[in-house]
Request: fold
Amino acid sequence: MKKFLLSAIAMVVTLAANAATAVETTTFKGMIEVGFGTDIPEIDKDSDPATVVFSKMDDGTYQFVLEQFKFNGMLIGDVTITKGLKAEEKDGALVLTTNDVEAAVTNSDMAAALGGKVLITMKATIKDGKMVAELSNIHVFLGPGMDVKAKFESTSSATGINSVSTASAKASRIYDLSGRELPAMQKGLNIVKMANGKTVKVIK
Reply:
């Protein structure tokens, strides 16, 4: 039993060490229109409010989270795209694309019914602090021609930088679990003493 517990703890520590951490997060608030059909629906005055949280991770990848996604009053949940999310800079814009990738679904009763994931294809453009995202082939229901399409347009955005990346953090000290000071953050759990005296744990 003891051996099993040690193995389980080691697995959790390994997974945590490999998890990417957000270094910059932008919250886009706007409107979303959801529907069926062959075309992406257009935003209008009756469209619903929606929030997308977009993060740049410390390993160079990105994360797109459509919070509390709904369709016809039915809550699907938070839809998170990480794997298969490609980012490319084009004409002063950041273009994000996915092609039929698995997106995690959480924070809803529907999440379990969907097996905690949906397939999704997306193209989003971020330019001048605004995001427009077109989502298609969202496999929420079974059956041909039953895939959902959506369009999100932001009306405002706010960007926050992870405190570990701020100027005050550069003057901080980093330690490992044994208390040894490190020259820089290492893979795994780091104890960071901030310039303001605060201590935080950071997984890299």
Q: What stands out?
A: Residues 1-18, 163-171 have pLDDT under 50 and may be disordered. The helical segments are 2-18, 110-113, 167-170. The first strand starts at residue 22 and ends at 35.
